[in-house]
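Reopening this ticket.

The earlier resolution said the output was attached, but the attachment link was broken on my side. Pasting everything inline this time so it's all in one place.
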Amino acid sequence: MKYLVVGLGNIGDEYAGTRHNIGFRVLDALAGASNAVFEDKRYGFVAHTRVKNAELVLLKPSTYMNLSGMAVRYWLNKENVDLERLLVVVDDLALPFGKLRLKGNGSDGGHNGLKNIAQLLCTQNYARLRFGIGNDFPQGTQVDFVLSGFSEEELQTMDERVAMACEAVKAFCLSGLVFAMNHYNNK
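Inline output:
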């Protein structure tokens, strides 16, 4: 079985390590664990890896966050992956740092990347793994917060939380959405 796993983020050195790029960070960890290398392809950076009997196509869109749907739609079609085997890894302000929430559908929650994906796929029925980035910011500074780096305290547990997100991705691909939700939500 083939899966498309998309990590949302923004390209460019100025965005590396920011809260908004947690999707890229999770995919980098997945690729690194199997020595997969990202290649610069159409609409994104793509790597291929296997987890047991599952083939994973890892995609980090190069379209910037607000146009992520173009990359997702293109790679779903190019790799001939069914919508049920799409998983989008995304940052979430509504969750405390490091908390995971896997869902099979739902609203975009104000996230422009998810909004664009739903528009271009004409559905919100695709799986997403939300990675909590916290919401400790003064009113009116949300953009600055999501484009900022993590605190020293958060960085101390970052590797552990990213590893847990990678395990959730693997569980989704190997055992399905319901199993992964039951084992990784709110962890």
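Reporter confirms the inline version is readable. The chain has a mean pLDDT of 93. The two ends are 27 Å apart (CA to CA).
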